[in-house]
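Task 17 of the worksheet. Students: predict the tertiary structure of the chain below and write it out as structure tokens. Keep your answer in the requested format; marks are given for formatting as well as content.
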Amino acid sequence: MAPAQRTVIVVEDEPDAAEMFAEMMRVSGYRVLKTYSSTPAIAMIANEKPDVVILDVMMPDVSGLEVLRFMRREPELTGIPVIVVSAKSMPSDIKTGLDAGASLYLTKPVGFIDLKQAVEQVVAPLGDKLPGQL
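Model answer:
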């Protein structure tokens, strides 16, 4: 029996970038939902409980970091891996993202291979273990 399709939520205010990330994930076999602002993202993440969230930091309403901090405070959401994808590339920005609870922090522009590997890295530990493995 095939495993259930994994779900990725893309939170990115730039429609072209959101669609590019979404398409990268669809090609990799994921079910993709996307939103262009943080406020609906919080409800979407809470309702869907995706396998991974791809999150931009600079959003028009609420910072992506606030979405991340919210997720880390909520018991039902705290275990969902979050990959921050941001144009903010200073070491202090990356540290802030990781300190807020990001699983990984990628700086834009992000290529297909980098994003696919990042998602696989954070999603694989969630249950793709072979029989006989702990």
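Marker's comment: The chain has one domain: 7-121. Helices lie at 15-27, 38-48, 64-73, 91-99, 112-123.
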